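We emphasize that the prediction below concerns an isolated chain of 380 residues; any contacts that depend on oligomerization or on bound cofactors are therefore not represented. The input was used exactly as deposited, without trimming of termini.
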Amino acid sequence: MSSTDPASDQTAEQRHTALDAVHRALGATMTDFAGWDMPLRYGSERDEHHAVRTRAGLFDLSHMGEITVTGPQAAALLDFALVGNIGAVRNGRARYTMICRPDGGILDDLIVYRLADTEFMVVANASNAQVVLDALTERAEGFDAEVRDDRDAYALIAVQGPESPGILAAVTDADLDGLKYYAGLPGTVAGVPALIARTGYTGEDGFELFVRPEHAVELWQALTKAGEGVGLVPCGLSCRDTLRLEAGMPLYGHELSTSLTPFDAGLGRVVKFDKDGDFVGRTALEAAAERAASQPPRVLVGLVAEGRRVPRAGFAVVAGGEVIGEVTSGAPSPTLGKPIAMAYVDAAHAAPGTAGVGVDIRGSHEPYEVVALPFYKRQK
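Result of the prediction step, given as a C-alpha cell string:
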C-alpha cells in the first residue's frame, strides 16, 4: 500500500479518500476507520438512515480493499483460496464468500466479481485488506495467476435506497433494468468509466460504483444533482451500521472472526464442498459442518428490547441467572423504534419467542425478545 496519494494529503498513519475535501465541505463528522479518515455522519444519523429506507443515500466506501486476480488459472486459484465455488460464477456476476484459515477460522468475508473469463475483483473489508492480499498472494504459489493490489486504483461510491435506480438512470445509459442483484457491468456513469454493481450493505436496492479516484468528485457531484428532486442525502458509516444491523448482515470483528467458522456464524451455505479440488480449510470445515449438524454451537439470533436501554457488543446475554451468550452488535433501530442487537446464544435459547432472555446492561438485566434475523426485509 502506498503511503501517499496525489489526490490527497495522505500519510501512512491515516489515509484519505479522493472525496475527503467534499466530506469536509459538507460538514461531515469524520472518524478513523481501519486507518482511513471517513465520514461518520453529516447531520442526523437517524435522518440519514430513514433517507436510505425511504428515498436514497450516497456513501463513500473508498476504504474497501480491491484485489484483482488475473491469469489462466485465476478461477482455480480462487477456488483453492476461498470457500466458495468461484469457477462457477458467470462473467458479470458476483458472489458473497469467505476466506478462511486452515483451521476454518474466518479471515474475512468478501464479494468476488467475475469481470471476464480470466479476471476477477475481490473486495475485502478495509480492516482486513492487507491480510486478504497476503493470504491470496501466498496461496497463489503454483498457480498461473497474478494477484494485484488495486486499493489505490479505485474509489467506491454507493447509492442505496428505493430511489437509487432512478437516480442512477439519470446519469447512465447502462441497462439497469437488466442488471440483477449481485451482478456488475462496465459502463459510463456521468461521463466516467465505471464498474456498476447491484450490490450493497443496507438491505435496500442499490448500486456500488467502482471508478478511478480522479473521477470520484465529479461522479459524487453528478449523483448529488440527479438526486436533488427525490431526497438523496449523503450518508456516513454510522447509519450504514444501523442499516446493515436491521438487515441482519454480519460485520467482521463483530459477528465474524478468526475464532469462528462459517458454520458457527450460521453461514455454512457459503462453503461449497462439492467444488472440484481441495481448498484451504476444507478438512476443518467438514468437521465444523458435522458439529453444527449434530450439536449446534451458539446460534446467531436477533434481540429486540422491551425497554429503551441500548445493548452494545460484548454485553452478556442472560437467562435464569446464567450467562447464555454475548451481544455482537447493538444499536437503536430507527426503523423499529427500539433498541436491537445481534447475539450468539446457546442453542437452547435460540428459538424465536424464547422467554426469560435478557441482556446485562451495567448490572441490570434488561428484558429482550429473541427474534429471527433479519429485523427488516424490504418489500420487493
